[in-house]
Design a protein that fits this description.
The chain is an all-alpha fold. It contains ten helices and no strands. The two termini are 35 Å apart.
């Protein structure tokens, strides 16, 4: 909302160092916080961060630090897709990798200590859970169906999320939306 108004009015650039010389409309755009999310991220940046995270090489050692892993990491590394985008495209992504990625995303949901903006982490978190349900009919979360459905619908509503991710979220929502949670 605020970004469109500011962009069309030309108020995004302010060159004056004296606030009393700035036109009120421009000053209002400078103070418009509607375009900024938690952690200071612009909504427009979230799409790029998500794309980067999807295509970054999965480093199992980084994921291991987010929780206990019971499966042999060497076996998982040999057979696993090399990025989260590859997990998304894989007909049967390893459940252990989905669990690890869910834990990795969850670290960013628990305060500002995580490596990702919380909104990007939430997309990856719900996507991991949905993929396990859709591709393996397996739960990797204790969320009730209603909570998972709400989260997946939130993912679908994000304008910066790709069509492919929205498609997975819609299928997951369709699957859990008709259940009693």
């Amino acid at each position: 909302m605020g970004m469109d108004r500011c962009a069309t009015s030309g108020a995004a650039i302010v060159t004056s160092d004296r606030l009393d010389k700035i036109k009120p409309g421009r000053l209002a755009c400078l103070l418009d916080l509607d375009v900024i999310t938690e952690g200071g991220w612009l909504e427009a940046d979230l799409a790029g961060i998500l794309q980067h995270q999807l295509h970054a090489k999965l480093v199992v050692d980084d994921l291991k630090n987010t929780g206990h892993v019971e499966q042999s990491m060497a076996t998982m590394e040999q057979n696993a897709p090399q990025s989260f985008a590859a997990l998304l495209d894989h007909p049967t992504p390893p459940v252990a990798m989905l669990q690890l990625f869910k834990r990795f995303a969850k670290t960013s949901l628990n305060g500002n200590a995580g490596p990702l903006p919380a909104k990007v982490a939430a997309v990856l978190y719900y996507l991991s859970i949905a993929l396990a349900l859709l591709r393996h009919n397996q739960r990797i979360s204790d969320l009730a169906d209603a909570q998972l459905d709400e989260g997946l619908k939130w993912v679908i509503a994000q304008p910066w999320v790709t069509k492919e991710i929205k498609s997975v979220a819609m299928k997951g929502s369709d699957l859990v939306g008709g259940r009693d949670g």
